[in-house]
Amino acid sequence: MPAAPLTRYRCVLLRRSGASEIRIVRAEDAAAARARLAAAGLDPVSVEPIGPSLLDRLGDRIARGGWRLPRWRPALPSGVGLPAGRARAIALLALATIPLTTAVAAWGLAGFDRWQAARLARREAPALAAYARGAATETARIRIDAVMAAPPVSALADRLRAVLPEEAGLAGMELAEGGELTVEIETPDPDRLRPALAADPLLGALREVGQAMTQGGTMRVTLRGRI
């Protein structure tokens, strides 16, 4: 069964710097084009089908038998034939020019695709710039919301001391800008520490990420979580 014909898709990518990048992808449909880019770790902003290239149309006509290479027949006087040596030389010359003409055609097609990509980039530049500004604003809003939602470090310290077992002590605390809390607690029995923190609805989000023995023989437990 013959394979489905491939369609060219113009895919617009947005870099982290805000600049746009355009790639031409051949695929069965738009979903396949997106999947091919996703496999390479790329997320296109838009996928737009474009018409087949000149080389595609030429190959299709040849495959359907609708086009043949023209036969060159030199006009010779009646009854005069072409010498065998000269005929071979002409045939070899024609064969030698095939790579050159193929390279020229490929260069022309690549240049046309670059021209189309540049024209699309100029046309879509305002929309892409607006998209980049919106994405940057949304990222900043999320970070600000996370910082505003997190309680003060002093309040977190008081809350921790209230729920810790008597033999445990707070050794260190750090609250990142994104709302991620890192806590270090010294305790002789880490097994009693876990249920004490789990009973608090806010501190229950902390998860143990490491343990280390102190010089005093206790355990220093490191916990981390987003609050």
Overall description:
The protein has five helices and seven strands. Strands 4-5-7-6 form a four-stranded antiparallel β-sheet, with helices on one face. 9% of the residues are buried. 47% of the residues lie in helices and 23% in strands. It has helices spanning 30-39, 54-63, 84-149, 153-163, 190-198, and strands at residues 7-14, 20-27, 44-50, 169-175, 180-187, 207-213, 219-226. The protein is elongated. With 227 residues, it is of the alpha+beta class. The two termini are 57 Å apart. This is GspL periplasmic domain-containing protein. The chain crosses the membrane at residues 89-112. Keywords: Membrane, Transmembrane, Transmembrane helix.
The counted number of beta strands is: 7
Number of helices: 5
> Which spans have pLDDT < 50 for at least 5 consecutive residues?
none
Spell the H/E element sequence: EEHEHHHEEHEE
Q: Largest sheet, described in full?
A: 4 strands, antiparallel
Rounded Rg: 35 Å
Principal-axes shape call: elongated
* Share of helix, binned: 40-55%
Return the average pLDDT rounded to an integer.
Answer: 75
Distance between the termini: 57 Å
> What is the topology, as strand order, of the major beta sheet?
4-5-7-6
